[in-house]
Design a protein that fits this description.
heterodimer; A: 393 residues; alpha/beta; six-stranded parallel sheet; 13 helices; B: 333 residues; alpha+beta; T-fold; eight-stranded antiparallel sheet; 35% helix
Chain lengths: 393, 333
């Protein structure tokens, strides 16, 4: 039934196509990794019954499987503790992988080899080699969709900002300022001390790329995508400065990335010792600044724009609605939904059309390599550089 | 000898005074936030005679009278009332003026337009969908300037469902009130701007006229088009009404926020924006929406008989191209 829909749909263009697909069967999807992110995604999918039906879940921790089971609205889920068993389930058409970073590649690669569509959480892979291997693995698999979970940039707000950048509304952009701060230890509660490393894997280098991979990767990825670039030089500093609690990954990091083809400097910082800025994302050009939250954004034109016509003392025009006293203008009239909703909406479309998603294995690899080189600079206290020998795309 | 010197000395002293006064005029700028938008005042005076707290409190008082965004404002209380309420001076001036303009424009300016504004999705509360034919017919039962009136300071309505929206004229009047505040403090060289409506008086020191830009109509605040014109209006008010910024899509069409109170449907004609000159901003602002509803021909005809007003009009030609035209006051720019 669904195949027929796709075939017919292929002959029709534009919005009619999406209308037809909404009538098709939902994609049967499995979740591997039922921690905060895995169950968070399940919550979103509960609101998209026309597009996805979660059929099975996998986690190494029993209490998480039980929690995931409870969360599901459409009857009993098949549960697995070994993801390879899950992949033998013929019913599964697509798989969400939301496991610790060091497992992204081995599990993700097995999902791809099994022929399923894959929604792989960010950062795409833990190492540079794994990123390149995944790119190689996807070669020739045009009917399989691999989408990487940089969900924020799927919101219409971030598409609009990319468009503003590309159309030159911001002028020449020379700096971006990004922060993702919190005031807290970034730990999850551990019911049994034996599970410390399994649950708080973000604290340990063996499994995690720390704040850079878990948080700053979103903004690094957006800059890569919006400017179609990647950093060449990586400068970084950091330490375990707030929570000396046995963790290995830094709780205070600052990156300076250089994009010579763009004449651009990227400042990316994250910490666990101050929450005032929280999420901050500013893109600064000669004509104006974009300031972004995850769901809303403002544009602040540079003051000189008005004075270009000589000295004007006032401007008459239809009333302009402003949000704040600094004269900024909202980029979109209303706040957007959670980025995950848009990301999965598009994942569904791409599965139907067998098209390359916007957050794909190539952009995912570029970002994974950027994150890895930033962490290399951070932990080795050396300036690192992009090797132009990396074969992506 | 002494006697002969006196006239010359007096002249010299007077000259110095005059010169000194000129020298003493300094530029002051107030920038604030009101009515969901920004305002700015530039004035030239010997000292900072008017402060931001004064203009802010004037505008807050104004909102308590006629803002639809304040549930306890007089206008909201009137709208909720069955028969009407006692109103204040600000509200009364606005109602008298808008009724006068309503008559002059054959009902195309109408203060009772609120049910239509709300139904078409431009009010404080947004409805889920656009109104149908029957809805519009029903809404029009509560629309019409004849359905309200003043008895002293009592503003009455003939039907409980009659509701006012003075947003088309109130902004202009608030600009006039700011200008009056400056005048009361003996400031005679100023430019007041609120939400794109302006009041100008006098000149800048060094005798330069105030220059006012007429905004481009791209409607994209993120990529503003260059100014269409830069004018030197002299003493008076300049306001603009346009459908290029505030509209929404419905049924594949762009819907204007300006309502035609006679038909009950959003205004749809060739006009994109009208910039009006008049002696005060209540007049300019009071008429500009009416001109948008009148369309090009009727507006030009209307203004040909008025010596005290002028307009600069941007419109779409039948072939789709954007054109502009101007009446007396704006000719020469």
């Amino acid at each position: 039934m669904k195949n027929t829909g796709v075939l017919t749909g292929g002959l029709i263009l534009g919005n009619k196509l999406s209308a037809m697909q909404a009538a098709g069967d939902p994609v049967k999807i499995a979740v591997i990794g039922c921690g905060d992110r895995g169950t968070g995604i399940m919550n979103i999918l509960n609101g998209m019954p026309g597009q996805f039906r979660v059929t099975s879940v996998c986690d190494v921790l029993d209490f998480r499987l039980a929690a995931a089971q409870k969360l599901n609205k459409t009857g009993a889920l098949k549960t697995y503790t070994d993801y390879r068993k899950l992949l033998e389930d013929k019913e599964v058409e697509a798989v969400i992988v939301a496991v610790p970073l060091h497992l992204h590649y081995p599990i993700g690669a097995d999902v791809i080899r099994s022929g399923r569509h894959l929604y792989l959480e960010k950062t795409m892979t833990y190492t540079i080699e794994q990123a390149l291997e995944l790119v190689a693995l996807m070669k020739g698999r045009d009917n399989q969709v691999l989408q990487v979970g940089h969900q924020y940039r799927y919101s219409p707000l971030y598409y609009r900002v990319k468009e503003m950048i590309n159309k030159g509304y911001l002028g020449k952009v020379t700096q971006v300022d990004c922060r993702w701060d919190r005031n807290g230890n970034w730990r999850r509660p551990v019911p049994d001390p034996a599970l410390e490393r399994a649950i708080n894997w973000r604290m340990y280098k063996e499994y995690s790329g720390g704040l850079v991979a878990e948080l700053l990767s979103h903004q690094i990825d957006f800059i890569n995508w919006a400017f179609d670039t990647h950093p060449q030089e990586f400068f970084a500093t950091g330490g375990i400065d707030v929570f000396k609690d046995g963790r290995e990954t830094y709780d205070n990091v600052q990156l300076m990335l250089r994009y010579p083809d763009q004449g651009l400097i990227g400042n990316f910082g994250a910490m666990c010792g101050n929450a005032h800025d929280g999420y901050l994302f500013k893109i600064k050009g000669t004509l104006g600044t974009v300031s972004l939250l995850t769901d809303q954004g403002m544009f602040y034109p540079e003051k000189k724009l008005l004075s270009e016509k000589g000295t004007i003392d006032g401007v008459t025009g239809a009333t302009r609605i402003v949000w704040n006293k600094e004269g900024g203008t909202p980029i979109l009239p209303e706040p957007t939904k959670d980025g995950t909703w848009y990301a999965f909406n598009d994942f569904y479309q791409k599965i139907q059309r067998k098209e390359l998603p916007d957050s794909n294995v190539f952009t995912g690899a570029r970002t994974a390599i950027s994150v890895h080189l930033a962490n290399q600079a951070l932990y080795s206290k050396k300036i690192c550089g992009w090797d132009n020998g990396y074969k992506i795309g | 000898m002494k006697k002969n010197l006196l006239p010359g000395t007096v002249f010299l002293v007077l000259l110095l005074c005059a010169f000194g006064q000129q020298q003493l005029l300094r530029r002051f700028e107030l920038k604030g936030y009101a009515q969901g938008t920004t305002y700015s005042i530039v004035y030239y005076a010997p000292d900072s005679l008017v402060s931001l707290s004064q203009t802010d409190s004037l505008l807050q008082r104004f909102d308590r009278s006629v803002s639809l965004y304040q549930p306890n404002s007089l206008i909201c209380r009137f709208n909720r009332s069955a028969k009407g309420i006692r109103i204040d001076e600000t509200f009364r001036v606005l109602v008298e003026r808008v009724l006068q303009i309503s008559r002059a424009t054959g009902g195309l300016v109408d203060p009772t337009v609120k049910p239509l504004v709300d139904a078409w999705g431009f009010g404080v509360v947004k409805p889920g969908h656009d109104p149908g034919k029957e809805d519009v017919k029903n809404l029009l039962r509560n629309v019409g300037a004849g359905k309200i009136g003043l008895k002293g300071d009592f503003l009455y309505k003939t039907k409980p469902g009659v509701q006012l929206d003075l947003n088309g004229i109130a902004q202009g009047y608030s600009v006039d009130l700011l200008a009056s505040l400056l005048e009361r403090h003996h400031i005679h060289n100023y430019l007041v701007e609120l939400g794109g409506e302006l009041r100008v008086k006098g000149r800048k020191p060094g005798n330069g006229p105030f220059k006012v830009g007429i905004e481009g109509i791209s409607g994209d605040d993120l990529d503003p088009a260059p100014m269409r014109k830069v004018i030197e209006p002299g003493d008076g008010a300049i306001t603009t009404s346009g459908n290029y910024r505030k509209h929404h899509a419905a049924g594949g069409k762009q819907i204007s926020h300006l309502m035609n109170p006679l038909t009950g449907y959003p205004v749809q004609n060739e006009l994109i924006s009208v910039t009006v000159y008049a002696r005060d901003a209540i007049t300019a602002d009071g008429y500009d929406n009416g001109f948008m509803a009148m369309g090009l021909k009727r507006t030009l005809n209307f203004l040909s008989k008025r010596k005290d007003m002028g307009a600069y009009i941007v419109y779409r030609r039948p072939d789709g191209l954007i054109a502009d035209t101007a009446t007396n006051f704006f000719k020469g720019y």
